Amino acid sequence: MYLSDRDLQWAREQRLLIVDPPPEPKDIGPTSIDLHLDSVDEAKVWDLTMLKEYNQIHGLGDKPFIRLGTFDYKKLAGQYLTRPDKDKSKLVYRMGDEIVVKPSGFLLWQTKPQAGVRQGCCHLIVPGSCRPITRRDGSSETSAAPRRGRA
Asked: Is residue 20 domain-shared with residue 33, that is, in the same domain?
């Protein structure tokens, strides 16, 4: 579903669509809200070697993949998400204040604002996408997962 800039503004005013802190007017486009990335220190990559070992130990094969719905994200992320290092041979690496992502690389990077929707309004982002969300302060509600990039 696409919302016009007027619909996005209305949804924000009604607190159906949550972007906190609110975006600047220049960040609201005809059908999107631009979200800004947090500091470069917040960028994360999966430690694929450790994930491979985890999967082998738990009888999940020898590939570095995650089966959705079969793990505790907070526990797994705490152990296997790391900051990109400066090794240019890797698919994702840090170069000063920049992150380089090569083809087939995968990077997680949080946005400065929190973005989501109120309970029962998940259809504003993607039909059928409602699930619990946890905020940085540890509180949570049933909603759409915070979006990264564009809301």
From this structure: yes
Those residues whose C-beta lies under 8 Å from the C-beta of residue 62, and which sit 6 or more positions away, are: 52, 55, 56
How many folded domains does the chain comprise?
Answer: 2
Per-position b or e across 58-78, b if 16+ CB within 10 A of its CB: eebeeebeeeeeeeeeeeeee
Answer whether residue 92 is part of any domain.
Answer: yes
- The whole-number pLDDT of residue 122 equals 66
Residue 53 has pLDDT above 60, yes or no: yes
pLDDT grade for 14, boundaries at 50, 70 and 90: confident
Place of tokens 């998400």: 81
In a domain, 121, yes or no: yes
**Average confidence (pLDDT) over 116-122:** 74
